[in-house]
Amino acid sequence: MKILVAEDDEVSLNILLAQLRHLDHEVRGARDGREALGGFEQANPEVVITDWLMPGMDGLELCRSIRRMDRKAYTYIVLLTSQDRKVGFLEAMKAGADDFVNKPCDTVELNVRLRVAQRIVSLQTTVTQLEGLLPICPQCRRIKTAQGVWQPVEQFISRTTAAQFSHGICPTCYETRVKPEMERLRGSTQPKPGRSPGVV
């Protein structure tokens, strides 16, 4: 995933960036909230990991600023907190934080949290796609997913919603296709004029 990290302590920033690269993420660092906000639109990250306490713009203000942006793609925000910090979590959630990780970051815990983030971002992308326009092939009726894979409509809807399929015929198809075909078949089984039924 694309991850933007905001951390005012240079040593902590470099350690965290190294951890994330080791976990095969594409990372970009910022030394404070303002620098992170400035590079946010360029980086277009799926996840932002930010220290809570920073000079100038702190983590909460960075959260609020990101949430105020009119973006279609959802960004998952993780706040870095000190071990003894328990107050203010509700305020942080209201500011737009999705999760909290204690400093210093444990690589295993960080990996688990980022897997959750990836699922949330993926689900949000699917919801956004369902609410917007879906590319669909006019020939085979396959839908292009966010991952660029073409899937049958039924398969896409079954995987992204709780809907189940049953068979039915809409009135238009009945009138324009089914009914004429039934009448054609009925006419072909009628005996031809001048012949008795069963006579060849």
- Which radius of gyration do the C-alpha atoms yield? 28 Å
Q: How are the strands ordered across the major sheet?
A: 2-1-3-4-5
Report low-confidence residues grouped into runs of 5 or more: none
CATH topology group of the largest domain: Rossmann fold
**Total of DSSP H or I helical runs spanning 4+ residues:** 7
- The sequence of SSEs as H and E is EHEHEHEHEHEEHH
Count of strand segments: 7
Instruction: Please state the average pLDDT score.
Output: 84
SS-derived structural category: alpha/beta
What's the N-to-C terminus distance? 75 Å
For the report, how would you describe the main beta sheet?
5 strands, parallel
Q: What is the helix fraction of residues, given as a range?
A: 40-55%
Strand fraction band? 15-25%
Query: What is the CATH architecture term of the largest domain?
Result: 3-Layer(aba) Sandwich
Shape type: rod-shaped
CATH class of the largest domain: Alpha Beta
Query: Any idea what the CATH superfamily of the largest domain is called?
Result: Response regulator
